[in-house]
Specification:
about 325 residues; alpha+beta; four-stranded antiparallel beta sheet; about 40% helix
Amino acid sequence: MAANAIDQTRRMLSLVTYLRERPGARVADVARAFGVTEAELISDLDVLPLCGTSFRGGDLLDIDTDGERIWWHNPDDVAAPLRLAADEATALLVAARAVATLPGLRESDREALVRATSKLEAAAGETAAAGDRLSVTFESEGGVFAEVDRAISERRRLWVRYYSPARDELTEREVDPIRLFALGHTYMEAWCYRSEARRTFRLDRVAEIRILDEAAAPPELELRDLSEGLVQPSADDPEVVVVVGPGGRWVAEYYPHDSAEELPEGGLRITLRTPDPASLKRLALRLGRDGHIVAPQDLADSARKAARAALEAYEQN
């Protein structure tokens, strides 16, 4: 899917130059010149009027078609040399650096983008320094899905870098994928060699993925019935209750839980189970004023003690 988007972007950039030199060009001729169907060309033309030389919405391309010919009504208005404001230059630099990291880019396109970015940095001067403090991470679930799906069909092992919210860390793992399924989010069920057990991975938490040469050979496992939901805690797992304010509602999004009860003023009372309650002390530290553990009592006391120790260490520095 990334490659298709990149191809379309490249085609539309060339299309602008092509149409400027050929006023009233015929749809059939343009489609033939670019090797696309007329329907694909019309789809591109529907996007072009949303593009222009200003991030603030001015100077958009006034291009339309009657189905037979294509008309560009303001080519001269957008032909003036582009002058970027500081915020525009920063936004463009951040976006360019982020796009250069996309896996779907051809190497020649990546090199061209890097060269263009370098020229923009030189022209922007001190403004470019602000962009160094910003970064963009693309939502990559679609690409991860494609890799997992391919690994399952080819029975290949996967290497992944995975974000574990319970520990607030990235871990590297080799897994044998078993299946994909969706319950609100999309998940991969796999045999994890790090844990030596079956684990479930949420695709939007996969930071990096690579298909390995090794054949996948997960142990024979009975597939779990997920009709009652993904979280099916063991009766032996301790129950933990966390109360959060509006700023801590993200916990219900990132942590599997049994229930999330609405509280006054936008808070939540979240009940979850975990075989390792101590791992949630890090969560309490991350929440700060936005929430706290209320049960079990020994975990709540331990979390408060860890928070006081962290605060004392901070004040000493």
